Every structure is written in C-alpha cells, then in structure tokens.
Amino acid sequence: MSIQPDHRIGKNAMQLVLLEEEEHLYGEKLKEQGFQFCLGKTGSMETQKVVAAIETAAKRSGVISPDGYRETHALYHAIMEALHGVTRGQVQLGSVLRTVGLRFAVVRGKPYEAETEGEWIAIALYGTIGAPVKGSEHEAMGLGINHI
Questions:
Q1: CB 18: neighbour CB atoms within 10 A?
Q2: Are 140 and 14 in contact (CB under 8 A)?
Q3: What are phi and psi of 106, to 5 degrees?
Q4: φ, ψ for residue 9 (rounded to 5)?
Q5: Strand (E) positions, the chain?
Q6: Domain segments of the chain: what residues?
Q7: Phi/psi of residue 52, each to 5°?
Q8: d(CA 6, CA 54)
Q9: Is the confidence at residue 45, as pLDDT, over 90?
C-alpha cells in the first residue's frame, strides 16, 4: 500500500497552490499523472463563504460531481481540515474578528499503487489571516486530505 513518489496528493496540492507563474506547467504534469484539479481564490470573514467558494469551484470544474453526497462530503472534510491549519485549530473568523484572503487548490486522484485504495482529495490553502485591517494580516497555510 505504498504511495507512488510523484503521486503524493498533498504535496502536489501544496505545490500547485504556491505556484503562480508556472501553475499551468505543473497542472499539465498533474493531468499526465491522472489527477484532476482546480484553483481559485476566496476571502471572507465568514467560514461558510470560504467553504462555499471551494465547493462551488470543485463542482463547476468537474473535480467532484454536483450530484450525490459522497464526494461533497469528502470535500467538506478536507476543507475543514485545511481550515484548521490556516486558523490554528480554531475554525472561527468573523466571530473573533479575523478575516482571510486565500488561494486554494483542490486535487483529486489515486495516490496509492493499489487500485483498491481508491480516490482521494486534497485541499491546499495559502494566503493571509488577521484582523480586518489592511496590514494586520500574516501568512498562513493549511492542508486537508480525505478519501472519497
């Protein structure tokens, strides 16, 4: 049940979210390896708006199916895990006077050699978090991985 070295889904999601000028080249590499992905940006003082933006992008791009519950459920758990990293374990924003400005990458694929391990989804978040005052924010990053 070993992970294929170039199929580490979390590492691929983090690299994709951090790239800006070369993301299209990296994206081609991911497609060649059988991964699906999407990229986007979101910012808000409300956690539900961040979750909704990522979920909408994943559905519109075809990374997850808009029908059914299983894929959306897996995506939700990966998003919440990634938000724990960004918010340092307290997934609260506006209620504690914090706001985020984030880039996100959603990557779906088969990181394991064994077909029986199935598909997984990873969410990488990178950006800023802080008081809703320009210049009061700092960098933050989060990663969430879940099986589908």
A1: 14
A2: no
A3: -115, 120
A4: -65, -40
A5: 36-44, 99-109, 120-130, 137-147
A6: 5-147
A7: -65, -40
A8: 25
A9: no
Check if the beta carbon of residue 105 is closer than 8 Å to that of residue 13: yes
- Contact status, residue 9 vs residue 33, Cβ threshold 8 Å: no
Q: What is the spatial distance between Cα 99 and Cα 5, in angstroms, rounded to a whole number?
A: 36
Q: How many CA atoms lie within 13 A of 32 on its CB side?
A: 7
Q: Please work out, in degrees rounded to the nearest 5, the angle formed at the alpha carbon of residue 142 by the alpha carbons of 20 and 12.
A: 50
Please state the separation of Cα 42 from the chain's center in Å. 11
Tokens (6 digits) for 26: 């990296």
Helix axes 9-18, 23-32, angle to 10 degrees: 160
pTM: 0.91
- Nearest Cα neighbor of 4 from 115, 145, 106, 121 is 115
Residues 91-133 pLDDT 10s: 777 677 788 999 999 999 999 889 899 999 999 999 999 888 8
**pLDDT tens column, 46-87:** 899 999 999 999 999 999 999 989 999 999 999 999 999 998
Tell me the CATH number for domain 5-147.
3.40.1510.10
